[in-house]
Structure formats: structure tokens, C-alpha cells
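Researcher: Batch entry, complex prediction.
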Amino acid sequence: RKEVEQDPGPFNVPEGATVAFNCTYSNSASQSFFWYRQDCRKEPKLLMSVYSSGNEDGRFTAQLNRASQYISLLIRDSKLSDSATYLCVVIGNNFNKFYFGSGTKLNVKP
Amino acid sequence: EAQVTQNPRYLITVTGKKLTVTCSQNMNHEYMSWYRQDPGLGLRQIYYSMNVEVTDKGDVPEGYKVSRKEKRNFPLILESPSPNQTSLYFCASSLLQGAEEKLFFGSGTQLSVL
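Model: C-alpha cells for the complex:
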């Protein structure tokens, strides 16, 4: 079983839509959680850290559910510029390894 | 500006010709790592380093070498490249301390081995 699993998509949504991605992780002792955004053939860039209390940054909201071992990303009022691949990243309990999901592709259409 | 600098951006080579991809960070990060990214497989870790002179294998280390003689530099060496090493490579670094755990990535190296 993979350490981190994501639905690869693609999610095709119209501008203005609300879209949500989930990501599950297998190690219950995992310590830190992140969402990264990656544009085609470019380096991943940090979108948000994910905390137990949840966090929000403008149109983006991230949640962590430790009991069910998943994290989520909600994007409200989607923009064309949100089209990208979203990577779920988890740091293992020994703090020496970042585990990446394979990414969820989002296409926002006019 | 805080950054991870990776060179070259594009590289075409032939089977068996040794090459080095350089990676340097200016943030005094202890942790550095190399990844390769292939379609459908996501990012896979090749090697990582927790500090100077400390390196460990990741998930796909075969055919690669690394060194960490200085804190800022973490070069990736392919002694005898083969076509199955054609991929997009990323170097990354992190402080791995609390709020600074996030990874900073270089801009990537697209390698083609003919």
C-alpha cells in the first residue's frame, strides 16, 4: 500500500465552482501535512500547511482528520489560474522523509 | 532571495557518459533531497541527506550517487547514465524544524539519456 494516496483526476470544473480533493495516508504516526501546487513541468510550490484545527487562506481551506487518516483541500470560486496538479505531502514520524501523493489534476474551464 | 538553485535546466546526453546535476541552497538547511518525477508515478525520492557527510538512500537510488561535503551543496551524480534514467529531476531542501518543515524545490532538470 502506498504511504499517501490521491485520486489522480482530472477534475474538470467550470469557473466559479467549488471543488474538493482528499488524500489518505497510511502511517497514523505521521507528523506534518501539506498541500503543494505543481504547474506542468515546473517545481512544486507550497500551497498550504495543514493543521489539526484546519486552516484557511482566501479561497483555499485545508483540513486534517487524524482519526480517518486523511487530509482535504477545498477550493471555492475556482479561477482559471487554479488549473494545476495538487500534491498531498506527509512527513513521516521519523522526520526524515517526505511522502508524496501522485497528485490530483484540476482543470478549470471558462 | 531564499532559493534552491539547480543546474542545468535541460540536459541531453548519451548512455554511459558520466554527468553531474548540481544543487545549491542558501537557506542553511540541514535536509536536502533528490527526486525524480515520471508520468503516472509521481515524485520518487532518490537520495536524501540530513546534514553534512550524512546521506541515505531513498526509494529509487540505483544508478545514482550523491555527496554532501558542504551544507549548501548536494550534487546528483550519474556515473553511467541509461535511457531509463530519462526523467524530470528536482532537488529540494528543508529546515525540518516545526513551522519550517516545508520543502523548497529547485526549478528542475529535464534529463534525456539517448
